[in-house]
């Protein structure tokens, strides 16, 4: 039963990821449109991931707050690590393309090696955290 909850969670996260990336790509593909500040989008995504994590924690029957934290971390890493790649896919850009206007993009452009490693391994890290969750 526990793994069914995580399969539902991963499916929900991938749908959320798809929707957010598609919405942003549609906006950015319009001529002259840019995203200068990620604050509102970050807050919306944080609330979305937290809501899914809380629902899955409730569905799993766990009372351990540490397991909620691990689940939240796993889904946050999954979303954060894969979002830019999905966005770039929808925009027809290289998978590691970074913009030049948002602080997030400027920071990661300076640390492109770390950015590539983190995005490449985000799915694996998420799966390891979810596995850890179930052996505790």
How would you characterize the overall build of this protein?
The longest helix is centred in the first third of the chain and has 27 residues, at 2-28. This protein is elongated. It has helices at 2-28, 39-60, 65-91, 103-110, 112-135. 79% of the residues lie in helices and 0% in strands. The two termini are 15 Å apart. With 136 residues, it is mainly alpha-helical. It is built from five helices and no strands.
Query: What letter string, H or E per element, gives the SSE order?
Result: HHHHH
Q: Kindly state the mean pLDDT as a whole number? A: 87
The Rg value, from CA coordinates, equals 16 Å
Q: Enumerate the spans where pLDDT stays under 50 for 5 or more consecutive residues.
A: none
The tally of beta strands, per DSSP, is 0
Main beta-sheet strand count, sense and barrel state? none
End-to-end distance = 15 Å
Instruction: Enumerate how many helices there are, as a single number.
Output: 5
- How much helical structure, as a percent, in the residues? over 70%
Structural class: mainly alpha
Give the percentage of residues in beta strands. Answer: under 5%
How does the overall form come out from the CA principal axes?
elongated
